[in-house]
Amino acid sequence: MRTEYSPAQLEPIAVYRLLTSTVVPRPIAWVSTVSADGVDNLAPHSFFTVSSVTPPIVQFTSVGRKDSLRNVEATGQFVVNLAPEPLVDEVNRTATDFPHGVSEFDAVGVARETSARVKAPRVAGSPVALECELHSTLRLGDSTVVFGRVVHIAIDETVLENGHPEITRLRPLARLGKDEWSTIGDVLDLRRIRYSDWPASS
């Protein structure tokens, strides 16, 4: 027995709650930008993923027109900082709807560090920063998908193992439904099966 829904017959907030409670867990792009007036902005976006490897492109979605989107459109640059478990309170607080012109770095007390290739600062306490230049945007209804070409990657040496980011050291946060968050929990190491190794049918 299932409960059936037609999105066309639901209020948008109801559709949002259903989607964000079932498309889980969602990685968090902790996006730092700077406005044309020089005000730094920092906000978490949980509609986030890799779009392409060659060229290296990541994407996040701004639901509505938020400062992150406005700043990216104005400057053509942003940084995706990994949102780590030890900074969960800071990540959550940067989602506060501060007035335009208020820097979340300052209001929340998040330490900055200078980026290598873009004007937007990196989060000093984040183990990974992806410095991006705007590739393109795509408007979908009330949201805008932002595609950024990764031009520089900065990784804290303490999370590397044999030159590779180690998941238990990264300790990334993810968003679930409602006000729920998750950590990595159990990690399964499961190799993909090649067709040449597929067991023959009986």
Structure description:
By secondary structure, the chain is of the alpha+beta class. Strands 3-2-6-9-10-5-4 form a seven-stranded antiparallel β-sheet, covered by helices on one side. The protein is 17% helix and 35% strand. The protein is globular and about 65 Å long. The chain has helices at residues 12-22, 67-75, 88-93, 104-108, 167-170; strands at residues 26-27, 29-34, 40-45, 48-52, 57-63, 77-82, 112-113, 122-123, 128-140, 143-155, 160-161, 164-165, 174-175, 181-182. The chain is built from five helices and 14 strands.
Helices and strands, with pairings:
Layout (H helix, E strand, L loop, with lengths): L11 H11 L3 E2 L1 E6 L5 E6 L2 E5 L4 E7 L3 H9 L1 E6 L5 H6 L10 H5 L3 E2 L8 E2 L4 E13 L2 E13 L4 E2 L2 E2 L1 H4 L3 E2 L5 E2 L20
Antiparallel strand pairs: 1-13, 2-3, 2-6, 4-5, 5-10, 6-9, 7-8, 9-10, 11-12, 13-14
What's this entry about, in short?
The protein has 202 residues and is an alpha+beta fold. It has helices at 12-22, 67-75, 88-93, 104-108, 167-170; strands at 26-27, 29-34, 40-45, 48-52, 57-63, 77-82, 112-113, 122-123, 128-140, 143-155, 160-161, 164-165, 174-175, 181-182. The longest helix is centred in the first third of the chain and has 11 residues, at 12-22.
